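ok, trying the design again with the full structure, not the truncated one.
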């Protein structure tokens, strides 16, 4: 949920850490997010309900940052986020996914999110209880006197008994003690109810218990998970999840240009316009029935994206265009942008590979010339093969470091500098032979 201190300028500053260029897109999404907070501050409930999000369409080539902008927005605001592809949906009446599935999947994502937050809270609440119960089992006692208990618990926390074995009881079902974090996923929302029901039924008192032996450190985790399973309240989480999905959910619809009606398009395929008609009420504001109750889509923020290389924004049906009033054209990335992506953004590709090789006592560094050559190579491959934007960089850096990563670890710690000549040597033969097919990543 967006915080009052997260003003548009601050949102853009956060986005700048991970996304190079695209100032116009960042500014627009930052304003849209801030308007969500502003709407919630309105005291007049009738007026508040009338103010709907200004949905956004990001237009630009692959790899310019469209998906990353939406994903980072969700992280900044701690909002439920779902990415879908418009081409995966079919018109009502055809076999395939109907557009309402995106709302059901958003609910699934939100339930997972809130459930995991609750689990973290319960872990803190019940951890010491699990340690104490393990201490009792370690000594085959029902109770421990305070002095002995405190000493034993301290020893357990310090890891002195990690390898000792204790006997624990579990219900007959094999699911007991499984990490509850993995219970709910963002798959078919209709299946989640039965999954949760199965988990809860695990602790049916009528089932016979059986014993098993675990190491102390594993027993603590087992008893902690068991206690969490017994005390987590889905009746509290689900209504909260529905409201959170309605008020704070972000849905990113990728490849929306692929469902635009183009001139001379074939009629043998499922009607693109039909899918548009089905998406329209979802982004316009409707109520979708889920297994957990109705979800209103009026205040969900929809961010759509597409390359629009073969279709224009105007090829979308006018009503759908009207539901995306903010249209932003994103720029193709330049050599300078690629250099910034390689060096300036947080957790950049080069930093990732440096950290990976440190595990094998290999210290790598890149000269300024090497980084420039990698950027130039990415630009050249995008021009000559296929423009996949910044995604090209990962493949190039992987190829540059492939032999080093294959040879590591060495007999002793090693320092390696990647310079311009090294990069040129890697790609020289391929460019001379114009054998570029292998670089379609």
């Amino acid at each position: 949920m967006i915080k009052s201190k997260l003003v548009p300028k601050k949102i853009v500053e956060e986005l700048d850490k991970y996304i190079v260029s695209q100032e116009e897109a960042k500014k627009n999404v930052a304003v849209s997010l801030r308007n969500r907070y502003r709407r919630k501050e309105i005291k007049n409930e009738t007026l508040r309900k009338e103010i709907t999000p200004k949905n956004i369409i990001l237009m630009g080539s692959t790899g310019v940052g469209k998906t990353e902008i939406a994903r980072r927005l969700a992280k900044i605001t701690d909002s439920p986020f779902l990415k879908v592809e418009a081409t995966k949906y079919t018109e009502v009446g055809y076999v395939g996914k109907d557009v309402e599935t995106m709302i059901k999947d958003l609910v699934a994502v939100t339930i997972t999110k809130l459930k995991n937050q609750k689990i973290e809270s319960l872990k803190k609440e019940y951890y010491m209880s699990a340690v104490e119960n393990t201490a009792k089992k370690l000594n085959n006692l029902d109770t421990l006197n305070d002095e002995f208990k405190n000493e034993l618990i301290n020893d357990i926390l310090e890891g002195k008994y990690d390898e000792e074995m204790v006997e624990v009881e579990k219900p007959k079902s094999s699911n007991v003690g499984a990490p509850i974090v993995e219970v709910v996923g963002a798959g078919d929302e209709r299946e989640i109810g039965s999954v949760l029901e199965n988990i809860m039924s695990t602790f049916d008192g009528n089932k016979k218990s059986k014993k098993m032996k675990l190491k102390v450190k594993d027993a603590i985790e087992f008893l902690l998970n068991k206690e969490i399973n017994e005390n987590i309240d889905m009746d509290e989480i689900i209504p909260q999840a529905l409201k959170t999905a309605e008020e704070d959910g972000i849905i990113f619809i990728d490849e929306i240009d692929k469902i635009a009606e183009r001139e001379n398009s074939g009629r043998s395929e499922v009607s693109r316009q039909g899918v548009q008609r089905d998406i329209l009420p979802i982004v316009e504001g409707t109520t979708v029935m889920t297994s957990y109750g109705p979800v209103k889509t009026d205040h969900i923020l929809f961010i759509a994206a597409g390359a629009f290389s073969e279709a224009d924004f105007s090829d979308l049906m006018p009503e759908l265009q009207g539901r995306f009033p903010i249209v932003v054209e994103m720029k193709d990335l330049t050599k300078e942008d690629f250099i910034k992506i390689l060096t300036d953004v947080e957790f950049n590709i080069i930093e990732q590979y440096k950290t990976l090789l440190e595990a094998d006592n290999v210290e790598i560094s890149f000269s300024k010339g090497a980084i420039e050559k990698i950027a130039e190579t990415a630009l050249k491959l995008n021009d000559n093969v296929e423009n996949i934007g910044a995604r090209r960089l990962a493949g190039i850096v992987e190829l540059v470091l492939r032999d080093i990563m294959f040879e590591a670890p060495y007999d002793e710690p090693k320092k390696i500098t990647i310079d311009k000549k090294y990069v040129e040597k890697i790609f020289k033969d391929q460019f001379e032979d114009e054998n570029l097919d292998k670089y379609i990543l």
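Keeping the full-length input from now on. Residues 101-138 form the longest helix (38 residues).
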